[in-house]
């Protein structure tokens, strides 16, 4: 694309470029064709009995009733809640502590704050599939399993990280916290930097201790940031798919089969397109609700 | 005196915590490197050979001369870079419109875009398989790239709007008074001045594209089309306990480009992310 030539250019500009629509056209086309249409299609398919292989289908409510009546759904949701809840707690806690320490370290010029921050961010950039493989090599109960060989070296009992259905969900949480903490850290760091420093000065004059400062200034001031972060982590974690499929594949049994994996299995293992669509719509509904809450926290588009 | 002692104690705690966290974040990647450098025999020695006694790069050579691996890497790069360019082409004009025009429902449009960012890609992948089969886009790079673009555009448009916002409007106005058209303003003033923002959005998109798994996993079934994310998953399925060193090397090869790209532009990327994501 080059600068339009004079005669054609002015005419073209007067008619189109002065309005926002032509500028938005590429986004509308791409999102419409490859995002919005599939979203509507998944809603439509949830009201059918479609399979992945055949082309004919009829409209029915049976798929919805069947999907919500499935005895598996309760367990899947519970696993998802453990996965999401554990990740939220872990990522928020580590995120805010690291951010506090990094800020303290920057102030007191401690060695290694930049190294720590960069290392956390590097874990964040690792692709999901690779992250799953890395943690599998750590959790593995074979001789090359990092954690168990460490435990054996100090004469402790090895742990069934991935083969015990009661432990495996927590192992998955640990690996997810490893990848996700950096994001929380960045959000928390920005939030902490945004707190008005005069609040701390006033607290110093009043002789507040460090714990009092944390409890009565930092945490209340960070309330919105923590809440927003919680929503974002929930959405990201609920959408996580690749790092679980390469770490456990949903096993042992179905102990780590979260909702995204469940949807995938219904559609692409059982070829049950309508059943998977129903669960997809459920996921869509949860995401949009969270997105809506998140949007309420965003500052209004101000007079620009 | 007392407060200095407390500060000292605080420093000690900070260092201990920093060390623990460093081990938590760096340890797994260090373990990967350790396994990738080992010979078959040393794999079975676990942590006691954290630093291999007979380090070897044979694993990397063996992976890189594998029949499929170079193709996976090339496809991964191709899809990531093309989708990065595509995202810019689609999102930049929209970002300009969001920043420079006032129109009805603008914030609704922007919130709508943000909502797309929140939807799980899996939701659209469910119907997309059949839809693409009908369009004849299954097993084509073009089809996969278009989905990558659709997934990347919402965040990119938000971040780029922030970039364009930071360019003073008076520059546009001055140019328009001098007879520049809007396209000329966009092309000659806004684009050149949004260099850093455009670069970081490009890198963010390329890294995301490199890490992409779900889309190509479902839409590309031919080995010669698969990108690295899918390739490494297939590779994992073909390995067993006695070839862990090969899987570790393959995994490391897939991770390193993303890390390098990120480290080179860390400051820029974080600037864009915090400006766009946190401040809204």
Structure description:
The complex is a heterodimer of chains A (304) and B (280). By secondary structure, chain A is mainly alpha-helical. In chain A, 72% of the residues lie in helices and 0% in strands. The longest helix of chain A has 37 residues, at 72-108. The model of chain A is unreliable at 1-6 (pLDDT under 50). Chain B has two domains: 2-59, no CATH class; 67-278, Orthogonal Bundle (MetI-like fold). Chain B contains 13 helices and no strands. In chain B, α3 (69-100) runs parallel beside α6 (141-165). The radius of gyration of chain B is 24 Å and the shape is globular. Chain B: The chain crosses the membrane at residues 12-33, 72-96, 108-129, 141-160, 185-210, 246-265. Chain B: It is a multi-pass membrane protein. Chain B: Its main location: membrane. Chain B: Part of the ABC transporter complex MalEFGK involved in maltose/maltodextrin import. Probably responsible for the translocation of the substrate across the membrane.
Short key terms for the protein model shown above:
heterodimer, A: 304 residues, mainly alpha, MetI-like fold, 2 domains, 72% helix, globular, disordered N terminus, B: 280 residues, 13 helices
Q: What would CATH call the architecture of the largest domain in chain A?
A: Orthogonal Bundle
Order of helices and strands of chain B: HHHHHHHHHHHHH
User: What is the CATH topology classification name of the largest domain in chain A?
Assistant: MetI-like fold
CATH class type of the largest domain in chain B? Mainly Alpha
The largest pleated sheet of chain B is described as: none
Structural class of the secondary structure composition of chain A? Answer: mainly alpha
Mean pLDDT of chain B: 85
Q: How much helix is in the residues of chain A?
A: over 70%
Largest interface: A-B, 108 and 104 residues
Give a short account of the largest sheet of chain A.
none
Portion of residues within helices of chain B? over 70%
Query: Measured on Cα atoms, how large is the radius of gyration of chain B?
Result: 24 Å
Outline of chain A: globular
Organism (chain B): Devosia rhodophyticola
Transmembrane segments (chain B): 12-33, 72-96, 108-129, 141-160, 185-210, 246-265
Domain ABC transmembrane type-1 (chain B): 73-265
Membrane topology (chain B): Multi-pass membrane protein
């Amino acid at each position: 694309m080059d600068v339009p030539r004079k005669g054609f250019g002015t005419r073209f500009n007067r008619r189109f470029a002065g309005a926002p629509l032509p500028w938005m056209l590429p986004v509308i086309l791409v999102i419409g064709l490859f995002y919005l249409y599939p979203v509507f299609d998944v809603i439509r398919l949830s009201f059918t009995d479609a399979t992945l292989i055949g082309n004919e289908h009829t409209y029915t409510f049976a798929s919805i009733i069947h999907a919500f009546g499935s005895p598996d759904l309760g367990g899947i949701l519970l696993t998802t809640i453990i996965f999401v809840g554990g990740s939220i707690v872990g990522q928020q806690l580590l995120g805010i502590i690291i951010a506090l320490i990094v800020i303290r370290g920057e102030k007191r010029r401690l060695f290694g704050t930049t190294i720590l921050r960069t290392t956390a961010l590097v874990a964040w950039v690792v692709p999901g599939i690779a992250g799953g493989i890395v943690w599998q090599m750590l959790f593995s109960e074979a001789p090359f399993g990092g954690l168990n060989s460490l435990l054996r070296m100090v004469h402790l009992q090895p742990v069934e990280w991935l083969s015990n259905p009661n432990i495996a969900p927590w192992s998955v949480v640990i690996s997810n916290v490893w990848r996700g903490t950096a994001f929380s850290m960045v959000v928390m760091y920005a939030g902490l930097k945004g707190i008005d420093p005069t609040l701390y000065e006033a607290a110093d004059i009043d002789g507040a201790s460090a714990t009092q400062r944390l409890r009565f200034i930092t945490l209340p001031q960070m309330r919105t940031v923590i809440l927003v972060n919680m929503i974002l982590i929930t959405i990201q974690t609920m959408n996580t798919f690749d790092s679980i499929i390469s770490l456990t594949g949903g096993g042992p049994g179905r102990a780590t089969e979260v909702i995204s994996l469940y949807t995938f299995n219904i559609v692409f293992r059982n070829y049950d397109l309508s059943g998977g669509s129903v669960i997809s719509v459920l996921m869509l509904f949860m995401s949009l609700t969270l997105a809506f809450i998140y949007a309420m926290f965003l500052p209004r588009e101000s007079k620009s | 005196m007392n407060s200095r002692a407390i500060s000292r104690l605080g420093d000690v705690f900070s260092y201990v915590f920093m060390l623990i966290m460093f081990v938590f974040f760096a340890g797994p990647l260090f373990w990967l490197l350790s396994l990738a450098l080992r010979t078959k025999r040393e794999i079975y020695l676990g942590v006691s050979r954290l630093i291999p006694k007979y380090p070897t790069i044979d694993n990397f050579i063996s992976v890189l001369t594998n029949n499929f691996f170079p193709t996976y890497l090339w496809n991964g790069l191709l899809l990531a870079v093309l989708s990065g360019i595509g995202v810019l082409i689609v999102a930049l004009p929209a970002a300009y419109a969001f920043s420079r025009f006032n129109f009805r429902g603008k914030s609704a449009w922007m919130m709508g875009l943000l909502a797309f960012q929140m939807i799980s890609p899996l939701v659209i992948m469910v119907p997309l398989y059949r839809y693409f089969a009908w369009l004849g886009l299954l097993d084509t790079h073009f089809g996969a790239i278009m989905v990558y673009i659709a997934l990347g555009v919402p965040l990119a448009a938000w971040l780029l709007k922030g970039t364009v916002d930071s360019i003073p409007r008076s520059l546009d106005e001055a140019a328009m008074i001098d007879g520049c058209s809007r396209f000329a303003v966009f092309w000659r003033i806004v684009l050149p001045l949004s260099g850093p923002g455009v670069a970081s959005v490009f890198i963010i998109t390329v890294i995301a594209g490199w890490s992409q798994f779900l889309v190509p996993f479902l839409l590309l079934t031919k080995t010669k089309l698969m990108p690295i994310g899918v390739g490494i998953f297939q590779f994992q399925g073909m390995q067993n306990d006695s070839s862990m060193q090969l899987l570790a090397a393959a995994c490391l090869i897939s991770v390193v480009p993303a890390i390098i790209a990120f480290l080179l532009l860390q400051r820029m990327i974080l600037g864009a992310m915090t400006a766009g994501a946190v401040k809204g």
